[in-house]
Amino acid sequence: MRIASTILRDRRRVVLATLAALALAVLLAACGADATPTPTLASSPAQRNNPEWKALAAFYNATGGPNWWSNSNWLSDRHISEWDGVTTNAKGQVIALSFSWWDGLRSEMPTELGGLSNLESLSLSGTQLTGEIPAELGSLSNLKFLQLSGNQLSGEIPAELGNLSNLEELRLSGNQLTGCVPASLGSVPNNDFDELGLPFCEDGG
Questions:
Q1: Chain-centre distance of CA 3, in angstroms?
Q2: By the number of CB atoms within 10 A of the CB, which of 6, 13, 35, 156 ranks highest?
Q3: pLDDT for 144 beyond 80
Q4: What is the pLDDT of residues 89-107, one digit of tens each?
Q5: pTM surpassing 0.85?
Q6: Maximum alpha-carbon separation in the chain
Q7: Strands (E), 13-120
Q8: For the domain that residue 143 is a member of, what is the CATH number?
Q9: Could you give the 3-state DSSP secondary structure of residue 153?
Q10: Residue 23, in any domain of the structure
Q11: Domain ranges, residue 66
C-alpha cells in the first residue's frame, strides 16, 4: 500500500507541475510574451557600424528621408529588413532598394550606395533625384536591375557602369544626361537607350 500511495503521490505532482506549466504559458501569451522566446531582428550597435547600415543612413539623409511619403522603421532599432523599401536576403544583407515613384525622395544620390555590395536591384525611377549618377554604382558587381529614369539627373553616364557585368536592365531616360553611352553597356539586354537620344561612345568607354 505504501508503494501504491507513493506512486499516486508522484503522479499527482507530475500532473500539478504540467498544469502549472500550461498556466504559465497561457499567462505569458496573454501578456504578449512567448513561452519560448525566438531571436528578434533588432538593430544592434554592431549592426549600426556595418557598411550597409551606414550606406542606407547616408541614402536616407541625402534624399530627404524625413519627408518621404513612407519611411517606417528607418534609422530605428528595427532590423534593416523591416525598413520601408528595403529587401534583404536570408543573411540580412541588402539586395534591393525599391523606391520608384516614392514621393518626397529628392536631391542627389550619395556615393555610399556603392557600399551595398550585395545589391541586385536599385529602383529609383520617377522621383526627384538631381545631380550626377555616382560612379561608385559601378562597384555593385551583383547588380541586375538599375532603374533611374524619370528624374532630373544630369551630367554624363559614368563609364564605371560598364563594369556591371550582371546587369540585365538599365533605365536612364527622362533625365538631362549628356555625352555618350559607354559602349560597354551595349550588351545590357533590356534598356531604353533609344529614348536617351545619345550616341554610343566611339572610344569604347
A1: 66
A2: 156
A3: yes
A4: 999 999 999 999 999 999 9
A5: no
A6: 103
A7: 86-88, 94-98, 106-108
A8: 3.80.10.10
A9: strand
A10: yes
A11: 45-196
